[in-house]
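Researcher: Please translate sequence to structure tokens.
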Amino acid sequence: MSEQEESGGESTLTVLLAGGVNLAIAILKLIAGIITGSGAMLSEAAHSFADTITEVLLLTALKRSERPADRLHPFGYGKERYFWSLLAAVSIFASGAMFALYEGFTTVFGESTDQTSPIVGYAVLGIAFLLEGTSWLQAIRQVRKEARQERRSFFTYLRMIDDPAPKTVLFEDSAALIGLLLAFAGIGLHQLTGSSVWDGIASILIGLLLACVAYLLGRTNRGLLVGRQADPRIVRGVRDHLVAAPEIEAVVDLQTMLMGTDQVLVCARVDFDDSLGAADVEFACVRIAGELTEGFNDITEVFIEPVPRSDPNLRAAVLARYGDLSTRPIEDSL
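Model: Translation complete:
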């Protein structure tokens, strides 16, 4: 099994577990919210339903992004994972955060409501915390495992990750655990003070929490969807490999882009030795491209263009994109 297939299977397991947990919790919270009359509990029910929708969208992302390349999409469908993950972030905000904020403001500024059977709310929150914790631990386990494989720290890998599924599950489960604590505090303070304002404040805080999570996930997927550069270590390795090639005198320009999870496009403009013939340059391009795809598992497409390093228009374009390359390497400026 390839590293990409193993990662995809792990992501699918993480998403399926999170989806099943969220659906069960959403139903429990809805029942508890109706029984107790707690706005925070109803907000948490909306939160869990939003998370369930998110998991459906993530599953769609995982399946559709695995389709092979075809005539209409010669580079494959890898970026579909980012599109559907972006929709998942929007769903968290639209269906979770907005309802929680509405419920919170309605409770705070509306008529005070009596609390009934708070013990039911506490019991459901406790069960939900255990279930959410199970899903959260699976997401943590996957991210830590992949971070070790990449030889990165946990948070560095989380920032550089090109698979939005585990990051989305981790963020939403973390928000869910914090939201449960907020709901518990809202119900408890309502019971102690007799004022439903605390319940409403908890709902507002849950809504703000979800809005923040939606923003962070949306920003991550926006960057991936627009076309982020490859891991700087891959960029550096590709550049070093090109520089070391005996046929190449200089690397004039090097561009990389994530085409999907574990799918990197490499475009290199290089100045070949002028003594080489056309056939020599062709064979060198084929050989170097093969070496790059074999040496870096994530690289799926390589394009090498012979260019003169002295071309003023090309040099101006490179300087406009990266700045002075004599003082700042390409991979450090991206």
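Researcher: Any highlights?
Model: The first strand starts at residue 248 and ends at 260.
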